[in-house]
């Protein structure tokens, strides 16, 4: 896999947007294209590190960093899932992909779902993993009450070290070693997330 950054605004005067991808070193015409979209808080390299070796034997893989994660960036103030989906789809078109399947994990599942809506002609198959796409607002609120949270924003964008520990405890099966992290390390994590 090779790193590649696609400038989406090279031909316009709008806000700068670039999407970073990991792309196949040698694309094989006998293999279908597969796009892997990471979840919230991760980047593509971290999220799919263990899957790439196996999947690349069967697919031409394209693994983007979503905007504001990893090396992808936009000056556009839009933070919507639709904007994410449109940017990934536009980046894939600029890379010459006409047809592909897409796998989305967690937040990436929302993006994959929207990509299938935005670019119907290009998306062949969609796989969504661990993503609450069909939850109603009432179901989301009930789940937040059960885990003791105010809202999803407070859970995913923690404001203090205790909030980070809570998020990790909910996200990982064996989270004890992360609870040992000192407050200043967790405060650094919060500072970086707040910046983006």
From TrEMBL:
<feature type="domain" description="AB hydrolase-1">
    <location>
        <begin position="32"/>
        <end position="138"/>
    </location>
</feature>
<protein>
    <recommendedName>
        <fullName>AB hydrolase-1 domain-containing protein</fullName>
    </recommendedName>
</protein>
<dbReference type="InterPro" id="IPR000073">
    <property type="entry name" value="AB_hydrolase_1"/>
</dbReference>
<dbReference type="InterPro" id="IPR052370">
    <property type="entry name" value="Meta-cleavage_hydrolase"/>
</dbReference>
<dbReference type="Pfam" id="PF00561">
    <property type="entry name" value="Abhydrolase_1"/>
</dbReference>
<dbReference type="InterPro" id="IPR029058">
    <property type="entry name" value="AB_hydrolase_fold"/>
</dbReference>
């Amino acid at each position: 896999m090779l790193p590649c950054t696609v400038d989406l605004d090279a031909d316009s005067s709008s806000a700068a947007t670039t999407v970073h991808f990991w792309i196949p070193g040698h694309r094989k015409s006998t293999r279908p294209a597969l796009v892997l979209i990471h979840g919230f808080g991760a980047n593509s390299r971290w999220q799919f590190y263990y899957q790439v070796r196996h999947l690349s034997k069967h697919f031409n893989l394209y693994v983007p960093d979503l905007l504001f994660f990893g090396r992808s960036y936009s000056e556009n103030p839009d933070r919507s899932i639709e904007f994410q989906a449109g940017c990934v789809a536009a980046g894939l078109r600029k890379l010459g992909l006409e047809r592909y399947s897409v796998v989305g994990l967690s937040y990436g599942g929302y993006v994959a779902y929207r990509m299938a809506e935005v670019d119907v002609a290009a998306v062949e198959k969609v796989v969504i993993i661990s993503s609450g796409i069909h939850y109603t607002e009432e179901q989301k609120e009930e789940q937040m009450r059960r885990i003791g949270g105010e809202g999803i924003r407070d859970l995913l964008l923690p404001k203090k070290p205790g909030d980070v520990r809570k998020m990790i405890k909910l996200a990982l099966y064996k989270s004890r070693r992360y609870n040992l992290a000192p407050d200043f390390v967790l405060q650094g994590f919060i500072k970086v997330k707040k910046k983006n």
